UniProtKB/TrEMBL annotation, chain A:
It comes from Maudiozyma humilis (Sour dough yeast). InterPro entries: P-loop_NTPase, Small_GTP-bd, Small_GTPase. The lineage of its organism: Eukaryota, Fungi, Dikarya, Ascomycota, Saccharomycotina. It comes from the Eukaryota. PROSITE patterns: RAB, RAS, RHO. This is Rab family GTPase. Pfam families: Ras. CDD domains: Rab5_related.
UniProtKB/TrEMBL annotation, chain B:
Residues 326-471 form the VPS9 domain. Residues 1-13 have a biased composition (Basic and acidic residues). One of its GO terms (biological process) is vesicle-mediated transport. InterPro entries: VPS9, Vps9-like, VPS9_dom_sf. SMART domains: VPS9. GO terms for molecular function: guanyl-nucleotide exchange factor activity; small GTPase binding. Residues 67-96 have a biased composition (Low complexity). Residues 1-30, 53-103, 501-552, 571-634 are annotated as: Disordered. It comes from Maudiozyma humilis (Sour dough yeast). This is Guanine nucleotide exchange factor. Pfam families: VPS9 (PF02204). GO terms for cellular component: cytosol; endocytic vesicle.
Length: 211, 665
């Protein structure tokens, strides 16, 4: 417990039914977790992970994947430090949508947001390679071009799930607790606190005799 | 105060260890304060304590949600179980960790705010009701005042808790298993002097740890350590620099106390919000002055019907100075009504349109949960008062909607929109905005923020619905009125004043006519330099110097209370300024600038700095009436501007006195 804790707001983007919530549920229910904290279904979860000397606390925000709600996404990824853009390796349309999300995040989200591109449902492909509709190379290319982390996962088998989050955790600049605090709204700015340097305070003792 | 000017080699060390070295006389309290007030330190105990605290707090919060929810879902129950099992695990590994029971007990032990803290709220409200602003405050500015107050209240709570100023009754309720807890508090009482107050301001709770040390380890070591902190002399005497490390046990106790204190502060903050808004409900928010008659928004016309109901809190009244919000809400309600009608007429299939999961509506007990959600939505808009309560209801709504632990936001959001359209709670938008603006920002995080964001997103979705979202057939069936309602987005008709931008940058307040008392204090530093700060009646001097005094010396809460005045009477005008050049102490006394006493004194003063001219210019327009009537002042009145007092001759002093006499006329 003596490790410093960095909390990270991570937002989940991706078409409906690509398995966003399954990935997260797999991640938080795995046993390497220490803390179980309150959730809102699978839509809001937190999870602590130890990475090197740090504890990273993921605050995972799910977004509604329906196309109809796409315009609402900025409300959710505001101030996020990390994003998981999920697609289904068996559904080409979901990959097209993923491209859109990546583009939008680069344009509108926080400057240094860390994005992981995640192709889910590889278990289906492992059973039958015919099912694959999104080539691994294609996704890798996108990831390289856009500077994304890339993983192919299976929420069903748990393959690569933890790696996604560990990968993000390692890329998070841990020196930035201040930025992080701002993101999650925990920030208490210095000027709200006592500042002995400010003139009003320095004059305190003299002010005492103003009566 | 005594430590602020020490060299920097020490302060660099201090940045690494936020817990002040108890017996280091060179300890720079100024730096330590700043460092410790960072929300998260870079390392060390500080971070640890904070983090543990926040974890505890969220446990407690969860427990509260659960007890509040009339029909707690299976999901939340199971997660609570896992929470407690986890905690008991860790409790067995470390004796210092708190069990959820202890935390719960501690939390429930606090049912009302201590009188001292209550008074802070009363003062704040009394101040809010003072007719002191030229223009009515916009909602953003109001929110800003509240947030500033919350922050200060938080600090006061921290003082209160860490000073151990608990009433006897509460002490009994505190299940402190530390054997020496009684002596802990008494030791605290006798030792807490002004200086300890300053230390206590640092969140590192050095005082707490010291007291743990004093009560738990025997012998001279502990007592010396504590005295070195609490008395200035021994602090400077103990130049031996014997740094003693805290034993693991002491650290555990330290953490434990931090946790308990965090729980208490959390609880106090909740009670604070409750009390403020209940009080506002009681006294109303109108300001007595006739010059401030804010225009009523259309939405507040329904206020009368609800006003008869004493328990109904109408947030619309808070928004009345910013009519955009009211208009927005009205248009949104109209759209909701229209959508709801279309849905009832079977012209649109809401379930299909929103992609509402079948399981969410057809599951067993869906009908009863719909009723519960209806009730909860009404509670949210009508029968809850404090922002904290409202946000808890939002969480409750999410709990009620949960039919499976695996629900993602695909389901939550569509269900939420579905229920909003179905039940059309009044003033939903204003209530959501109210929570956003008036819930203590530091606590509106994580789950709470998520639930609120969902609500906002749902409303934004509804707001943005236009005809193009529906089929062409529907368009032809619509009545002219409905078509008009659905023609445009609400946001394209009404532009809301940006509230989010001002969350970080301070919203500047309109110039005050009278005094800027405590609530605006947080803004003082960021105020634009040419805003007239001083009122013509000059009460500024008093309140501001009190501010300064308080900030530095409010070691004990009693001190704070003593210094806040409900409303400072404008006595300064009647005081005759001393006919002497100001001594340095006077100079610093009204350094806050712009006070009339300063205005009158500055022309004759022998001391001069740039600030003088600045201040004169700033307050000039305000004071013009009284000064322009005085035409007999010789043109030479500025001749002493650059003089030094020590070099003045009696003659010159006399001349100065004459000038003064004329000025005073």
């Amino acid at each position: 417990m003596s490790k410093p804790v960095t909390s990270i707001k991570l937002v989940l983007l991706g078409e409906a039914a690509v398995g966003k919530s399954s990935i997260v549920l797999r991640f938080v229910s795995d046993d390497f977790s220490e803390n179980k904290e309150p959730t809102i279904g699978a839509a809001f979860l937190t999870q602590r992970v130890n990475i090197n000397d740090h504890t990273v606390k993921f605050e995972i925000w799910d977004t509604a994947g329906q196309e109809r709600f796409a315009s609402l996404a900025p409300m959710y990824y505001r101030n996020a430090q990390a994003a998981l853009v999920v697609y289904d390796v068996t559904k080409p349309q979901s990959f097209i949508k993923a491209r859109h999300w990546v583009k939008e995040l680069h344009e509108q989200a926080s400057k240094n947001i860390i994005i992981a591109l995640v192709g889910n449902k590889v278990d289906i492909v492992d059973e039958n390679e015919e099912e694959r509709k999104v080539a691994r190379e294609e996704a890798e290319k996108l990831a390289e071009e856009e500077g994304l982390l890339f993983f192919e996962t299976s929420a069903k088998t748990g393959a690569n799930i933890n790696e996604v989050f560990m990968g993000i955790g390692e890329k998070i600049p841990l020196k930035g607790p201040e930025e992080e605090a701002q993101g999650s709204g925990l920030n208490v700015t210095d000027d709200q606190r006592v500042n002995l340097d400010s003139p009003g305070n320095a004059d305190g003792p003299a002010g005492a005799c103003s009566c | 105060m005594f430590y602020t000017h020490t060299e920097h080699s020490d302060t660099r060390v201090m940045r690494q260890f936020h817990t002040p070295p108890v017996n280091n006389p060179k300890f720079d309290s100024g730096i330590a304060l700043k460092e410790s007030y960072r929300p998260r330190g870079l390392s060390g105990l500080e971070t640890l304590g904070e983090e543990r605290g926040s974890a505890v707090v969220s446990h407690a919060k969860h427990a509260r949600t659960e007890s509040a929810a009339s029909a707690a879902s299976a999901a939340s129950t199971s997660s609570a179980t896992s929470t407690s099992s986890h905690n008991s695990d860790s409790a067995s590994t470390s004796a210092a960790q708190l069990s959820p029971e202890e935390i719960e007990q501690c939390r429930q032990g606090i049912t009302d705010l201590p009188t001292d803290l209550q008074r802070l709220i009363d003062v704040f409200i009394a101040d809010l009701k003072q007719p002191k602003y030229v223009r009515p405050l916009t909602i953003t500015q109001l929110s800003h005042l509240f947030q500033g107050f919350y922050t200060r209240f938080d600090k006061a709570c921290f003082h209160y808790v860490s000073n151990g100023a608990l009433s006897p009754a509460q002490q009994q309720q505190q299940p402190l298993p530390v054997p020496a807890s009684a002596s802990y508090f008494s030791a605290r009482e006798s030792l807490s002097t002004g200086l300890s107050g300053i230390f206590a301001r640092s969140r590192s709770s050095s005082t707490v740890s010291v007291n743990n040390a004093a009560t738990n380890t025997n012998g001279p070591r502990a007592s010396r350590r504590s005295s070195s902190l609490f008395s200035m002399e021994s602090a400077s005497n103990s130049a031996g620099n014997l740094t003693q490390m805290l034993s693991p046990e002491e650290i555990k106790l330290h953490i434990r106390n931090n946790e308990l204190n965090n729980v208490r502060i959390e609880r106090y903050m909740v009670l604070c919000e409750e009390r403020i808004f209940n009080k506002l409900l009681e006294v109303g928010i109108s300001v007595s002055s006739p010059q401030i008659q804010p225009p009523l928004t259309p939405s507040s016309s329904s206020l009368d019907t609800h006003a008869k109901h004493p328990d109904v809190f109408n947030v619309a009244s808070l928004f009345r100075n910013t009519p955009e919000f009211g208009n927005y809400d009205r248009l949104l309600s109209e759209k909701l009504r229209c959508l709801s009608k279309l849905s009832l007429d079977g012209k649109i299939n809401l379930d299909e349109f929103l992609g509402v999961p079948a399981a969410g509506l057809s599951a067993d007990g869906a009908a009863s949960s719909a009723d519960d959600i209806h009730r909860a939505l009404n509670n949210f808009t009508h029968y809850s008062v404090s922002p904290h309560d409202k946000v808890q209801i939002l969480l409750q709504i999410h709990d009620l909607m949960t039919y499976s632990k695996e629900m993602s936001n695909d389901e939550f959001l569509s269900l939420l929109i579905y229920y909003i359209v179905k039940f059309r709670p009044k003033r939903l938008f204003l209530n959501a905005e109210f929570v956003k603006l008036f819930r203590y920002k530091k606590k509106l995080v994580q789950k709470e923020l998520y639930a609120l964001t969902n609500m906002e997103a749902a409303l934004m979705f509804i707001e943005g619905l236009t005809l193009s979202d529906f089929s062409d057939e529907l368009r032809d069936e619509l009545s002219a009125h409905d078509r008009k309602v659905l023609d445009t987005k609400v946001s394209s008709v009404v532009t809301l004043p940006s509230t989010s931008a001002s969350w970080n940058s301070k919203a500047s307040l309109p110039p005050a006519t009278a005094t800027h008392d405590s609530p605006t204090h947080a803004n003082n530093n960021s105020r634009p330099p040419h805003t007239p700060m001083a009122g013509p009646d000059g009460t500024n001097t008093r309140s501001n110097s009190n501010e300064g005094f308080r900030n530095t010396f409010d070691g004990s809460l009693r001190n704070i209370i003593g210094k806040i005045r409900l409303y400072t009477p404008p006595t300064v005008n009647n005081l005759k300024p001393l006919p002497l050049p100001r001594s340095t102490s006077q100079l610093s006394m009204d350094y806050d600038g712009g006070s009339p006493i300063r205005q009158l004194a500055s022309p004759t003063t022998t001391s001069s700095n740039d600030d003088d001219d600045d201040v004169t210019r700033m307050a000039g327009p305000v004071l013009t009436p009284s000064r322009s009537s005085n035409s007999s002042i010789p043109g030479s009145w500025k001749k002493f501007k650059d003089a030094k007092f020590d070099e003045l001759k009696i003659e010159e002093l006399r001349e100065m006195f004459d000038l003064y006499q004329k000025l005073i006329e």
